[in-house]
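Duplicate of earlier report; EFMT4 methyltransferase input re-posted below.
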Amino acid sequence: GCGNSALSHDLHELGYTDVTSIDFSPACIAAMRARYARCPGLRWAVMDIRALAFPDASFDVVLEKGTLDVLMVEETDPWAVSPQAAAAMRRVLTEVSRVLRPGGRFISITFAQPHFRKPHYAQEAFGWSLRHAACGGGEAGALHYFLYAMRKGQPLQPRDAAL
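Output:
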């Protein structure tokens, strides 16, 4: 779900020259291809995050920034996520795990607090460890956001596995 974010381009400018970005919107992907046509190594694909068209173990890093939040947008109680939303989240995370290489990292950036998001990420079936950190909030009125980092092939800590 890259949307029209400049993140892919920013990563390219920082030296990450092999970046694949996806979104379910053909119009969005067409616009991004046109906007960044001068950047070799930036690839764009129309794709559904619930059914990635990439082979197993294709990526060293999968990065999402707010995309998974869309799966929860209609939820009215973050303490009691509907079976449909939980299943959609599980499907996406299964796909992310599948396309990560051993030792690969999944990075998720969201406003979702750990007590709401960690139970989704902390599944032994995904085969990854889990860490998180709170970021932002340094200025008065600024919101905290959270960075979750999973590493494929590393075990969950017992406290996370218990979630």
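The mean pLDDT is 94.

Merging into the original ticket.
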